[in-house]
What does this fold into?
Amino acid sequence: MKIQIPPQVSGILNRLIGDGREAYAVGGCVRDSLLGRKPNDWDVATSALPEETESIFSDMHVVKTGMSHGTVTVVTGGMPVEVTTYRVDGPYSDGRHPDSVSFTGNLKEDLARRDFTMNALAYSEKEGLVDCFGGKEDLSHGIIRCVGDPDMRFHEDGLRILRALRFSSVLGFSVEVGTAESVEKNRKLLNGISKERIREEFTKLLCGQNAAEVLRRFREVIAEFIPEISPTFGFCQYNPHHIYDVWEHTLHCVDAVEPEPVLRLTMFLHDLGKPMCLTRGADGTGHFYGHTEKSAEIAQKIMTRLRYDKKTLQTVLTLVRSHDLPLWPDERCLRRRLNGLGEKNLRLLVMVEQADAKGKANPENGYILSLRQVSAVLDRILDQKQCFKLKDLAVKGDDLIKAGFTKGETVGNMLKVLLNAVIDGKCANTRQTLLHYAMKAEKGKS
It folds into this structure.
């Protein structure tokens, strides 16, 4: 198979080869090209030493990205390309980075240090694909397999454990038996990885096409850095509306929502508080009063620990807290929700509640059918510019003061009364009607 290499990368390869060096496109760019996916970036491996690479491209913008590890970045045609000398890694005493590297003139030795066979591929336009470890065959069979001894690969870099699961989720691949056993056995190595890197890989995993299956198969690995999920494993809900335990319900909900970080995180976290909130009625039916707030409390702890940004954190917490709010295709109901949540969060909440409903006993229950009509009613409210916020009221504080209301708390409270009246359809949003309603309401208090 011929790989289409961008002209900027091809130019770098040809210049290195023209100078008497070996040079190949390597790693993820080759993998993605073979899968028919567009690579996010291109990496080059070469027999040239970093100083030699720098000299060969002296007429271009060259960044000394990591000279001690053999890497320089050549910027050509506005495209940055990492060019790295063939190398053999020394010991990984921190379980993440090699203490030292030694350069080699042997491409196979360089490929042998890589994590998975599908990433240990090289390609040049002259020689075609170089595959020393069966990566092409593993790609064709949808298999993730470590290069060499998986225990050694994971002890070199514990993050590779989560990378294996992320690739499985995103690509829809299965993890080879020996590699999977090593993932389970060495999962505690994840405790030595920075929370930021854990977050990055986990979020990608969660947004993959195979996320639910990977979470199901490797739940103990995920529990290593999110132990709060463990109480949900096998936790019966004792409720006719649920045919799954809490963990299985969570997985079905993750699978049912769009693969966007905020939505997937919400579904993963939305019911974590249930095991702490179970009560049983006289008939044995399970109830989970207060679980939305408890789940939000747990979600905040997890997301803070994993260093999620403030905006993502706040949005997810809002959705977790709100996921049991009834949403009906009714203007009054939706004006009230718009007032509390805003348009963006409300639209997200509709998707969250649809996914939540699909994870229950009857995936085509009446509530799902009702939710499908919510967006149309919501669109109508917004198109008609109906009032659901204080700033949209046809009267302002000054209007009430001129009408004789005391400046300050009295005015503020009355504006809220008027807004609620408009939202509930008790009063039209016109200046005269609102002032009349306000005077009548004030008179009724005396």
Remarks:
- The CA atoms of residues 86 and 414 lie 73 Å apart.
- The chain has four domains: 7-132, 143-225, 232-383, 390-445.
- Residues 390-445 form a domain with the Serum Albumin; Chain A, Domain 1 fold (CATH 1.10.246).
- Residues 366-383 form the longest helix (18 residues).
